[in-house]
Amino acid sequence: MDRCLFDFALRMGDTTLILSQRLSAWCGHGPILEEDLALTNTALDLLGQARLWLTLAGEAEGAGRDEDQLAYLRDAHDFRNALLVERPNGDYADTMARQFFFDAWHYFLLERLVKSSEPRVAAIAEKSVKEAAYHARRSADIVVRLGDGTDESHERMQAAVDRVWPYTGELFVDDDVDAEAARRGIACTLAELRAPWLAQVQAVLEEATLTVPREDLAGHPAYRGGRQGRHSEALGPLLAEMQFLQRAYPGATW
């Protein structure tokens, strides 16, 4: 078993899987048809990426578990997603603030993973980075449109940014898994993503006439632990819905 590669791939797969599940809940409920379709497509892109990462995790584990078993047959404490992505959707401003912060981080990470020493990681990153670039452009555009829109949309977008901001710090805190992955050249450290991420976030929020929260989360995030299996109460209901069919009818096939 390649423990480091397994843990890294599992974190990537779980984070994209859980965010995909969150976004899929907007299908049929988007504020306008264009946004309904756009969010659904983003959810599908992330689901496709999750499948690749979880397949790699299963290969690295060497215990015979495939992507479906990893997705549907683990409990909440076994998931390794960042806390940011399990946050409830809230209103559309909450969803887009979460998406914008995630997309900027995701793009900068994948951009570096393309150069990974592990060929399978590099291949997944190369396939995913183009999707991530589009996601980042789109979510930034929506944040600008809402922030620099009406008085109400500006107020709602600012409130959403303030609510979601404390969950972003975890994205840049390295632990032993991250340090080992960086040492082997599998991935970069998360800390080095913070400067480009913050520059991008500040530029977009300024264009959106929004204020960047003052709280400095570098090294001291308000919320952390999801990547080590410590989750909020929001994850349980999400998994109950996502895993219901497989749990109710084990091994069912179409």
Automatic annotation (TrEMBL):
Q: Which Gene3D superfamilies match?
A: 1.20.1260.10
Signal peptide segment: none
A GO term from the CC aspect: cytosol
Name the SUPFAM superfamilies for this protein.
Answer: Ferritin-like
Q: Which GO terms describe its biological process?
A: phenylacetate catabolic process
In terms of NCBIfam families, this protein maps to:
PA_CoA_Oxy3
Q: What is this protein called?
A: Phenylacetate-CoA oxygenase subunit PaaI
What is the species listed in this Swiss-Prot or TrEMBL entry? Bordetella genomosp. 8
